[in-house]
Amino acid sequence: MHNKSVAELSRELESGKISSVELTQQFLDRLKQEDGKYNSFITITEEQALAEAKAADELRAAGKATAWTGVPFAHKDIFCTNGVRTTCGSKMLENFVPPYDATVTEKFRQAGAVCLGKTNMDEFAMGSSNESSYFGAVTNPWGLSSGEKRVPGGSSGGSAAAVAARLVPAATATDTGGSIRQPAALCGVTGLKPTYGRVSRYGMIAFASSLDQGGSMARTAEDNALMLNVMAGFDPKDSTSIDREVPDYTATLNEPLKGLKIGLPKEYFTDQLSPAMEEQVRNAVKEYEKLGATVKEVSLPNAKLAIAAYYVIAPAEASANLSRFDGVRYGYRCEDPKDLMDMYTRTRAEGFGAEVKRRILVGTYALSHGYYDAYYLKAQKVRRLIQQDFANAFKEVDVLMSPTSPSPAFVQGEKTNDPVTMYLEDIFTIAINLAGLPAMSVPAGFVDGLPVGLQIIGDYFAEARLLNAAHQFQQVTDWHQREPK
Amino acid sequence: MQWDIVIGLEIHVQLATQTKIFSGSSTAYGAEPNTQANAVDLAMPGTLPVPNENAFRYAVMFGLAVNAEIGRRSVFERKNYFYPDLPKGYQTTQLEQPIVGPGYVDVDLANGETKRVRIHHAHLEEDAGKSLHETFFDELGHGMSGIDLNRAGTPLIEVVTEPDMNSAEEAVAFAKKLHSIVTSLGICDGDMSQGSMRFDVNISLKPKGSDQLGTRTETKNLNSFRFMEQAIAHEVERQMDILEDGGRIIQETRLYNGDRDESRSMRTKEEANDYRYFPCPDLLPVVIDDDFIEDARQRLPELPDARKARFKEQYGLNDYDAGLLSGDAKLAAFFEETVEHGKDAKLAANWIQGEFSARLNAEEKTVAESPITGAQLGDLVVRIADNTVSSAGAKKVFEALWTGENDNVDAIIDAKGLKQVSDTGALEAMVDEVLAGMPDQVAQYQNEEDPKKRKKMLGGFMGPLMKASKGQGNPKLFNEILVEKLGG
Amino acid sequence: MSISREDIEKVAVLARIKVDDEQVSALEKDLGNILDLVDQLSAADTDSVEPMAHPLDAVQRLRPDEVTETNQREAFQAIAPATEDGLYLVPKVIE
């Protein structure tokens, strides 16, 4: 069962061949047995999962089942779950049990899905390797046979590794600068970051509010469509949520791609990309040509500034978003504070890890008196230029394609001593967040036995078209079905 | 040396919305601590703000009332600082693009002049919670403060004036006018003892006639007109002493203790926080269209200036009475109810400004807390006007109404026997009897040539007359009869 | 662009994060490198460009002024570090 997709599991449950309780128990057993190798979960919610499975079986018996009823999945530990510890990968929230649900959590509950637990992540979603988690690094299921432990990417590395290792068929994830697409690429799974505002951010612990977007990870594009069917939609509790109709994303998966216009941004095919990686990506594009798509080169002249703009805007927003972790109302508080200042400064020094502190300090500096114009305002202007680049490109083509990451999964510890080298992991993904566009990463080959991701970028609210393009590709390739040894 | 005083005000006005500015929690005053602080107000992880429509409606109504430009596009920013009563670690406020732009308020001064005070802008923001400094202790015996976040997220408009006021009197007159505007609009309950309006005063001095502004200080959080007046006087004196000794004023924030008439420095400009303002990414720009403004305009009630003009016109009140009675919306409504029942506007005005106001002040009550209604006072006014009761008797009726002894004016008059005797025949008989018993005084009166002195001498007969009538004789009629009987 | 030790110490106070001398040295290097990366921005010509705060050109929706929340103090204070009499306790606040 563990090799089946969400769509397949849904059909199994529908046919009555297996109950949700049985299915859930199988997944839980496997999860408990296997996850020691990957550390992809922070919390396994066995009891709740079995209770949800039982409720799902009853719902099905009552004839009220939907596609998700009784299907196991996991939440990235950034989505608040009522009554279940939600850590955001941080010591600060090590014992935080929210008395409320994120909107996304609530939607999966309503759909009758069975949550097996909370997946590991970089602390407060800040990282590209999952090594900044307070709960330990996550190991990529790929490349283990070589004897070296590789990173799964980040920040949604737990979700990606869990899906790749067949511990869950699908998991939620979030993406602020590449945190869905880059780990999806490094773990050989399919991930979707929707348009900013498509999925509610309520109850999703904020890193950088104008960039954060919840999304999905699964092995197939079809399962991502099933995920988005649950997650997408207007939420009156999120002021930045968009009130716009949600289509059935599975309905258009089988549309033919004939005539699809693909743009290849020349700035994303430079010497930062190894020839082996480039070859895999170009091969994937050739598959699309075989499916009837046309390809042309386009230019995103300001894309090279995306990392710089991002590392002002994201830390600036984060520096304010993380001020609420002050030891007053919830979360970690240092021992025996001698006064108020001591409580604040030690609580935050002890509760946050090194990368989070670096970003808070950078953001504080960028907003501080005398630097605001040179950093923050300038970055916002560059952000506009980047958005305009994409707008111009989408006048000519339907989707853009590029590699998702500059290299495949690297060895743990390789980049932890140099934050800036780590930041360059997101060189092909970050501009998309600045513009707020939807994008996917789709398995598209291997280099040295490690997965390579193809990034497909769409215009605003073009999720259905992205999923269609990814699904058609997956009908003629089997990269997404390969299983790590 | 002679000095010019320059004063500008920043006023925090709590808006009388049902819910908080960014959440659906109640803003009702006086609830148990932290029972009106929900996940958003507590800044629980992942929670997000959604702005309250009425907060914007009230801000726009205020803008229209002070002749201001309305910010068609306003933007919330984050003002970053750590304080236990500030759950998010930043205050969501407006800076560059506020909801209310430049406007003005005309203020009537006691000397009859009108002063125009310009409004620089007014912006929407959230209030903080409260730190309670009563003593709690942790297990090691360290003193702790308690934090109540019920108030956190209550909508405020912060009104910022230009430095257009030149005396404590002007500043207080402006503050009272602003109070009158926001309470008339119904956008604030105006209860200063509960912090519904709080004043920060910026004060500087400059040599008389100079056009160069001096260094200013800001005295924060004054919550009564009296403290405001005292704090200004105190700060002007403090600055004058320093300047006349050749010293320099330090730009700083000061706290005034009204009970001790003392002030102390809170922080200097050098220590001032670096608030790192930036646009709040959880909120989008608020666009106010013509329809929204028109709707707000339709909701505007009569404002104090218009009401004052109407009181003069409709009730024939003089400028002073009209000004006093029109300023406070509730007092104005009370006055109109009194007149509706009592007809005689001048008499109603006198009673409201006299007995009624004195009694409210003595018991530290607001008009809303008055135990008597305008209708009851109106009924009393009718009985005073038609001579049923004397003014001394009326005071007894008022007392009975106030204490709740009885709620009907006529019933009180009957029960207490306060009805005046106005039967001319009976009164004439009493006058005859009294005059007969006072022949010397009658002669003295009749020999007096000076009409002023004669008039004064009449009073000598009134005492015995009132005594003879057991206090129930109509003094006005007694007077008329006396004059007649004494031959003019 | 480099960042001085004083800057780091100042920013750490603003951000309420305690840093010791050793950390300041490490941060001097790391933050300096990050700021070097960020300094690429200065090359961009942004003279007539409007700053962009949000990806979508949307405007704020306003919520009706209706009470939707009920008292949940018990649930919220169950996860608080220190409370007494319904209040959150913190080391003494001195104004």
As for the CATH topology of chain A, it is Amidase signature (AS) enzymes
CATH superfamily of chain A: Amidase signature (AS) domain
Strand content of chain C: 5-15%
Largest sheet of chain A: 8 strands, mixed
Q: Please report the first level of CATH classification, the CATH class of chain A.
A: Alpha Beta
Distance between the termini of chain C: 38 Å
User: Total number of β-strand segments of chain C?
Assistant: 2
Percent of residues in helices of chain C: 25-40%
Question: What quaternary form is this?
Answer: heterotrimer
Show unreliable segments of chain A: none
Determine the strand fraction of chain A and express it as a percent band: 5-15%
How large is the radius of gyration of chain C? 22 Å
Low-confidence stretches of chain C: none
CA distance, first residue to last residue of chain A = 18 Å
> How many distinct folded domains of chain A?
1
| Reported CATH architecture of chain A | Alpha-Beta Complex
Globally, the shape of chain A reads: globular
The chain-level structural class of chain C is mainly alpha
Report on the structure:
The complex is a heterotrimer of chains A (about 475), B (about 500) and C (about 100). Chain A is built from 15 helices and eleven strands. Chain A is of the alpha/beta class. Chain A has a single domain (about 1-485), classed as Amidase signature (AS) domain (Amidase signature (AS) enzymes, Alpha-Beta Complex), CATH 3.90.1300.10. Chain A has an eight-stranded mixed beta sheet with strand order 4-6-5-10-11-9-7-8, with helices on both faces. In chain A, helix 7 (about 220-230) packs antiparallel against helix 15, helix 9 crosses helix 11 and helix 9 crosses helix 12 (about 375-395). Chain A is globular. Chain A starts with 5 loop residues before the first helix and ends in a 9-residue tail after the last helix. The mean pLDDT of chain A is about 95. Chain B has about 500 residues and is of the alpha+beta class. Chain B folds into three domains: about 5-295, no CATH class; about 300-415, no CATH class; about 425-485, Arc Repressor Mutant, subunit A. In chain B, helix 2 packs antiparallel against helix 3 (about 225-245), helix 5 crosses helix 6 (about 320-325) and helix 12 (about 425-435) crosses helix 14 (about 450-470). The longest helix of chain B has 20 residues, at about 225-245. Chain B starts with a strand and ends with a helix. The mean pLDDT of chain B is about 90. The relative contact order of chain C is 0.08. Chain C has helices spanning about 5-15, 20-40, 75; strands spanning about 85, 85-90. Chain C has a domain at about 5-40: Histone, subunit A (Orthogonal Bundle), CATH 1.10.20. Chain C has about 100 residues and is mainly α. Chains in contact: A-B, A-C, B-C. The interface between A and C is large, with 74 and 54 residues. Strand 8 (about 145-150) of chain B pairs antiparallel with strand 2 of chain C, so a sheet runs across the interface.
